[in-house]
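call fold target=4-hydroxyphenylacetate 3-hydroxylase N-terminal domain-containing protein
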Amino acid sequence: METRPQTGSDYLASLDDGRVVVHDGVQVDRVAEHPELSGVARTIAGLYDALHDGGAASLLVPTADGTGLTHPFWTVPQSRDDLRRQREAIRAWQRMTHGWVGRTPEFMGALITSMAAHAPAFGRFEPNVRAALARDQRDVTHYAQALVNPPVDRDLPPDEIDDIVLHVVRETDEGIVVRGAKAVVTGAATAQRLLVSHFGGEVQTDAFAVAASVAVGTPGIRIYTRGTPARDDQPLAARFAEHDALVVFDDVLVPWDDVLVRDAETMLAFNGGEIGWNRRLAFQAATRLEAKLEHIAGLAARATEIMGTSERRGVQAALGEVIAFRHTVAGLRDAMIEQAEPSGDSLRPGSRAALAFSAMAPDAYSRMRITLQTVLSSAFAHLPVPLEALGTEPVAPIEPLLRGSGGADARERLEVMGELWDAIGTGFGARHELYERSYWGQPERTHVGILGLARADGSLDRWRD
Ligand SMILES: Cc1cc2nc3c(=O)[nH]c(=O)nc-3n(C[C@H](O)[C@H](O)[C@H](O)COP(=O)(O)OP(=O)(O)OC[C@H]3O[C@@H](n4cnc5c(N)ncnc54)[C@H](O)[C@@H]3O)c2cc1C
């Protein structure tokens, strides 16, 4: 029988795997029913369901072994048309969430497919890489990425802070035993697996050369999350708030079948760009950001009409700037397709456009927030009553005062401005700026990488002539 990705209810049921999640300091019974974790879990479930009966179902493509259908981003691209199909499928999901969920289930397809395209580079773990792709392609596994170490002792090599940095404490016949922590693992509490890998300081001893695909429910894993302070009338946070987790590995046994890297050389290739997963990550992230900016631009346009400023030249210019940001992101993503380059057994998104996107997007996102705060100013803060209070005895008399311009009533004003405030101004909106700013790590690394590429491909020399 033809296989299909899991359904929404398969996904929600899979979260009952004995995982240990501590939210706001209290252990969670069932993640899928927790008031602050269930919103995003239900949203992810909705994405899976759309692969079965929603519009996204028509975008599925055959799995590599031909036994079923999968999300296109979970396949290894061989042509520009493959990349175009991947773009359309990512876009279909991202438009459902308006780009507000950073870790949708296609996101880690970037890593696993890039690794599979370079499977021989993984030596004795090559069969594991191929098996991981086959399983995750079939299921469209929902991963979180556990890469960055807790931000402490950044001036010390990892082996001098092994009380914190994740490392292998021993190997057994069954697998490797890992200990340590990973910080800000977005979506860990509602993921099915973690892509765990060393990052940061150079590997001094083999203990730190490790990457693995680890099931979230594995004994010894503990996930600590804090709530994004969200009120009931925060429409985006209620559905899309993700939690950035501290994940603790307390002597966790990872079976050999799930180990992907165990030597320093492959670790360097994994983190250093040769495997190329950052290019695929940029492709997915740009398509997500495109959807987010479309949502923000649409809300902002309506907000200026409600304010009565939509015909002011400066306000129009500000909206145009936000739309230009959307066009730049979409254009660079499409340039990644046009500039696609061979990488292992694949055609990966082009490096120049991918790196240019990574360099540009963080600052542009901050600029966009400032621009909207400048032109919408008091309208953001003019939300004196919640939506559900409309029609109540103390609020009904002031509803005419809450109207918008051009016939918009109080309800529409509160709906539009409340959603835009959540996008830009609340804790949810502020975290999203930090998220976009931190997506590519420190900007100087990206800029140095861009210079290195211009030197390596000879373009800088040509420009100097
Ligand atoms: C909202 C959010 C969600 C995130 N989600 C995830 C996730 O899902 N998975 C994940 O793995 N990570 C995640 N991250 C982490 C993110 O990838 C990092 O924040 C990013 O890579 C920057 O690394 P850092 O925060 O450790 O800062 P650092 O790299 O420590 O940099 C901080 C500053 O110190 C300087 N610095 C640090 N070390 C040195 C050094 N040795 N020499 C010289 N200067 C130094 C840098 O130049 C910089 O100015 C998330 C972060 C945020 C904010």
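return ok
The CA atoms of residues 318 and 374 lie 9 Å apart. The domain at 8-16+30-139 is CATH 1.10.3140.10 (4-hydroxybutyryl-coa dehydratase, domain 1).
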